[in-house]
Amino acid sequence: MLFLLVKTKHLYKYFCSFFITFSCVLDEKKRGAKLESKKIKKGDFIELEYTGKLKEDGSVFDTTKKEVAMASNLNKEADYRPIIVCVGEGHVLGALEKGLECKTIGKYDFNLEPEEAFGKKSAKLLKLIPMKVFKQQDIMPYMGLDVNVDGMYGIVRNVSGGRVIVDFNHPLSGREIIYEVEVLKFVTSDKEKLESVLQLLGVHYNSASVKEKNAMVVLEHEMSNEQKIMFEEKAKKLVGLKDIKYVTKKHDHKHDHDHNHEHTETISGKDTGVTESEDSGTQKQEVSVVPEDKSLSKKQ
User: Fold this and answer.
1) Is there a contact between 84 and 193 (Cβ–Cβ < 8 Å)?
2) Any alpha helices (H) in the chain, and if so which ranges?
3) Antiparallel, parallel or unpaired: β 45-54 and 146-149
4) Torsional sign, CA 295, 299, 168, 134
């Protein structure tokens, strides 16, 4: 009799445990089904994969998929993985955001005209830069060289005498673009949302955590006041955070300086893209060469 009682008790515990587990699985499936049928709206954080192609020949210029990047001879050193964006915040092209609104989890193709993608070509963005600006930095310009002039990305189109024509149009301006997009999931984790905002604003951080709407961010470098104000405004608005605290890692500044020097050749100045006349020798411009593995024009 005692044996039957003990056995019955064990069976009761087993069935209770099974019922609870089964109920949790059902609840999880219901939540998953609800999210799958949910329509995307402004303010939603979503995780997505995408591949951008030129409509004219199908060549890939950007992707989040490593296998596609390798097959298309894109930068082998880049970190290819799904990205998290907040819809309506300009994290992707406006036409894509608009196209994603009211969509659900799934795959979509978007055909974009130049005006919806990277704009039409403008003759106003073809600028004459004096040759001496390049020579002062030991840069020998040639057709197709990617340069950064006072923070503006451009491509050398012609070199003649003492003048260099630099095209500041986007390398993909005037092109019809196809984007293949797959919405993988809605992001509900505050930590993932916070990390997304950090990445999209270009904040160099080591780790981030959120507990009861209070965040802790471990920074690689100190943020400027302007950057901190912008970040906190976005994080509190989009993630709903109450407070953000920061810790900055100790850093080897000498190593940082040496590392940056390897990739940047600059001279100080301003007045981007001004056609220099004979008497404008006092004007200076900041010029650097864009590393080939970061050049979008080389992928065309």
Assistant:
1) yes
2) 2-37, 66-71, 94-100, 131-135, 190-200, 225-239, 253-263
3) unpaired
4) positive
pLDDT per residue as tens digits for the range 80-101: 999 999 999 999 999 999 999 9
Q: Are 108 and 225 found together in one domain?
A: no
8 falls within a domain: no
Cα–Cα distances (Å) from 196 to 71, 174, 187, in that order, read: 27, 30, 10
Please give the order of strands across the beta sheet that includes 152-160.
126-130, 163-167, 152-160, 146-149, 287-289
Q: Verify that 115 and 129 share a domain, yes or no.
A: no
| The one-letter amino acid at 154 | G
> Model-level pTM?
0.70
**C-beta atoms surrounding 240 within 10 Å:** 11
In this predicted model, what pLDDT tens digit does every residue of 180-239 receive, in sequence order?
999 999 999 999 999 999 998 889 999 999 999 999 999 998 989 999 999 999 999 999
Q: β-pairing, 45-54 with 60-63?
A: antiparallel
Domain total in the chain: 3
Q: Which domain holds residue 272?
A: 123-168+265-299
Query: In the beta sheet, which residues pair with residue 219?
Result: 205, 248
Residue 211: inside a domain: yes
